[in-house]
Design a protein that fits this description.
Layout (H helix, E strand, L loop, with lengths): L16 H4 L3 H17 L5 H32 L5 H36 L2 E3 L7 H15 L6 E2 L15 E6 L11 E5 L7 E3 L10 E5 H8 L9 E11 L13 H12 L4 E7 L4 H11 L6 E4 L9 H6 L23 H7 L2 E5 L5 H12 L3 E8 L7 H11 L3 E6 L7 H14 L2 E3 L6 E2 L2 E9 L2 E9 L11 E8 L2 H16 L10 E3 L3 H17 L5 E6 L5 H12 L3 E6 L16 E6 L4 E2 L2 E5 L6 E5 L5 H5 L1 E7 L3 H17 L4 E4 L5 E4 L10 H8 L10
Parallel strand pairs: 1-6, 8-9, 11-12, 12-13, 14-25, 17-22, 19-20, 20-21
Antiparallel strand pairs: 2-4, 3-4, 3-7, 5-6, 7-8, 10-17, 11-15, 15-16, 16-17, 18-25, 19-23, 21-26, 23-24, 24-25, 26-27
Length: about 700
């Protein structure tokens, strides 16, 4: 493993931050541009292009709900960011967001919808529907929609209604007077949340083999005048408001975090408004009325050429059964040594490495399920960050608790947008008799750990699973992640120490194998980087390869800059935001940064240090971000088995360095360029390679 001797350090010259770090928000938006590029790519199957378009829209929603909301909160509170700096950040991000949104709708209207229609998938506006289709839509409106609509005519007795975050709404201006002889001219109608946003028409109303859909917004638009007999609609628009969705509770003050969070969840839907979307034909005076109502500045108004809730178009992907318009089906494999073999007998002899989604997540489920039913297992401990509403893992833990095993679960209640699901599982686990705790006040528990304690002839034996991804049944099919199943005595003992630390809040013992945030993880990363720099200064080959979702921590970036200046060859595979400027002479000329965007979401975190041919490999739950290194419980763990270490390198690093199909390269100015093979016969996709050839003989990093 990496040498423990403290290497010499060399300080970089003091430079203005903007010259050595890229802007976080713009880098995050650049990632969204790369997702949008998948929707633009004609070689991607058509329904998958629509899915990417919806993912891009969903990403933008979260960007406003979290990042823009955070910037605006800083402006309001006057903390952390100098006003001119903040103003510039908001202006630059606003301009880029407008460009992305404009391009989204251009791709939707000019490419995807026409091509869907050419393939027999029709999204029908009112003017596109024939007489029979209009009759059906009218009946649908009368039976399913109209009874649920509650128009609110605005006057002193009818104030502007509460508008839920990201919900579909309509603003209507009426001529004439109301039933009481007054000129209440503006009405708000909220679309019922219980109704689907995409409605499939009966098959007999479509050409043979085709499928026809309409949007709920189109249905309401076509018949909304029927709600106002005797009055004329003079202006109309759909609209959607995005709100600050970051939950906050004073963890130092509350006595019960779960109860406080349950209360806070109720108010999330009505946080501070940060964006307004309207239809492109929305009259100026109605748009301004809404901006004033929600206290939103004009540069956060988006007048769009289509549905304001583009994310909902993803329902079409799920409702259409045309396999030729999707990625070819893929079934993950199972490691041969786990087929028809007791998992504890296997782990007693050797570690097992799983690479998802190319290899099935089922062995992890079987690990916990087998432990729940094994009479020799006395205790199970597990962390839960995201697990979803339905989870075989959670059901297995509940079964184990109900049948007398000591079950301890660290549930992270503050996992953004999964708070409700986690609260529900926490309640069920407690009711089953499990010991449930919520981590450490002020720190999110993001580590992915499970520990099984089994009584055997030689005494208590520990078995563990450590992973880079969540214990979530759906994301394991679409996210690339590594998981290690092991009975290694030192590693499993240290996993148990982490659990004791999280439940007792005592200072953890000194860990020699695991790197634990917020205590040692950043220090160990920087020490390993400096160790490579020392090796380079001594004239020997030095190499760092790291794969992660985001790279933003300034101390780590400065250590990488220093290592680059000393001659360390550094390859960084960063899917999302990256603040490091690569290729700057005298600063980072030995650093290359690339981002892989493909069929699967790249999610695994891998840290590789050549270390004089020791080839140190760590897998981790943590990105190189300040929040991961200091505001979360994170674990990085070594891969010790030489064969498995070679597998991580051969599957998790080398293919991504060779990719010339889905690889975007970052330049010093923050721009990404897609690097495509010049000859189509020499294309190489890392993900396709792993799907077709997983398990081929491994190799050490390519120099």
């Amino acid at each position: 493993m990496t040498r423990k001797a403290k290497p010499e350090t060399r300080d970089l010259p003091e430079l203005p931050p903007h010259t050595i770090y890229l802007n976080r928000e713009l880098s995050q938006l650049a990632f969204n541009r790369r997702v949008l590029a998948q929707a633009e790519d004609a070689t991607v199957p058509l329904l998958e292009r629509l899915r990417y378009l919806c993912i891009c829209s969903s990403n933008l929603d979260e960007f406003f709900e979290v990042r823009i909301a955070s910037l605006l909160a800083n402006r309001i509170e006057g903390e952390n960011i100098d006003p001119p700096e903040l103003r510039a950040a908001l202006e630059h991000t606003s301009a880029e967001c407008h460009r992305i949104v404009s391009r989204q709708y251009q791709v939707l209207n000019e490419e995807i919808l026409p091509q869907l229609a050419a393939n027999g998938i029709h999204l029908l506006r009112h003017e596109d529907r024939n007489e029979a289709q209009r009759a059906w839509v009218k009946g649908y409106f009368e039976q399913n929609v109209r009874p649920l609509l509650t128009p609110i005519g605005l006057d002193p007795a009818h104030p502007f209604p509460q508008v839920v975050n990201k919900s579909l709404n309509f603003i209507i201006e009426l001529s004439g007077k109301d039933a009481f002889g007054r000129g209440t001219g503006v009405v708000i109608v909220k679309a019922p949340r219980v109704l689907p946003r995409v409605i499939r028409l009966p098959d007999h109303l479509s050409p043979k083999g085709a499928a026809s859909f309409c949007l709920l917004s189109s249905v309401i638009h076509a018949h909304i005048s029927e709600l106002f007999p005797g009055r004329e609609i003079t202006a109309y628009s759909q609209f959607r408001v995005t709100r600050n969705s970051d939950l906050w509770v004073d963890e130092e003050e509350v006595k019960n975090l779960r109860q406080a969070l349950e209360t806070e969840l109720q108010s999330r839907q009505f946080g501070v408004a940060v964006r307004l979307e309207v239809a492109s034909n929305c009259p100026e005076h109605l748009a301004q009325f809404l901006l004033n109502q929600f206290n939103i500045e004009r540069n956060r108004l988006y007048a769009v050429e289509g549905p304001v809730n583009m994310v909902r178009l993803g329902e079409i992907v799920n409702l259409v059964g045309k396999p030729e318009l999707r990625f070819p089906p893929f079934s993950p494999t199972l490691p041969h040594l786990l087929i028809s073999e007791n998992i504890f007998r296997v782990l007693d002899k050797k570690d097992v490495l799983l690479h998802h989604p190319f290899q099935s997540f089922q062995p992890v489920v079987d690990f916990i399920r087998t432990a729940a039913h094994d009479q020799d297992v006395v205790a199970i401990k597990q962390t839960i960050y995201r697990t979803g509403m339905n989870s075989d893992l959670m059901e297995a833990l509940i079964y184990a608790a109900q049948h007398g095993k000591e079950v301890t679960v660290i549930v992270e209640l503050m996992a953004r947008f999964d708070e409700e699901a986690n609260i529900n599982w926490a309640v069920k686990l407690e009711q089953a008799g499990a010991q449930v705790v919520y981590g450490v006040v002020g720190l999110k528990t993001h580590a992915k750990l499970a520990l099984v304690i089994r009584r055997e002839e030689r005494g208590l034996r520990f078995y563990a699973h450590l992973g880079t991804g969540n214990y979530h049944p759906n994301t394991t099919k679409f996210y690339t992640d590594f998981g290690l199943l092991t009975s290694h005595r030192e590693i499993t003992a240290e996993v148990n120490e982490v659990f004791i630390h999280l439940t007792s809040l005592t200072k953890p013992r000194s860990l020699s194998r695991l790197w634990l945030a917020p205590f040692s993880l950043q220090k160990e990363i920087i020490r390993a980087i400096r160790n490579e720099a020392q090796i380079a200064r001594e004239g020997r080959p030095a190499r760092i390869i790291a794969k992660m979702n985001a790279l933003l921590d300034e101390s780590v970036i400065r250590a990488l800059y220093a290592a680059s200046s000393d001659g360390v060859k550094i390859d960084l595979i960063v899917r999302g935001a990256c603040a490091l400027r690569p290729g700057v002479p005298g600063l980072s000329e030995n650093i290359k940064v690339r981002s892989i965007i493909g069929r699967y979401l790249e999610h695994s975190r891998i840290y590789y240090f050549r270390n004089d041919l020791a080839h140190d490999v760590y897998l981790a739950s943590a990105d190189w971000m300040n929040r991961n290194l200091f505001r979360r419980i994170e674990v990085a763990f070594p891969v010790l088995d030489k064969a498995l270490k070679k597998r991580v390198i051969a599957e998790g690093l080398n293919p991504y360095l060779k990719d010339n199909t889905n690889s975007w390269h970052l330049d010093a100015n923050g721009a990404y360029t897609l690097k495509k093979a010049r000859n189509k016969h020499h294309t190489f996709s890392a993900q396709q390679h792993l799907m077709t050839t997983l398990g081929i003989p491994a190799a050490l990093p390519e120099e």
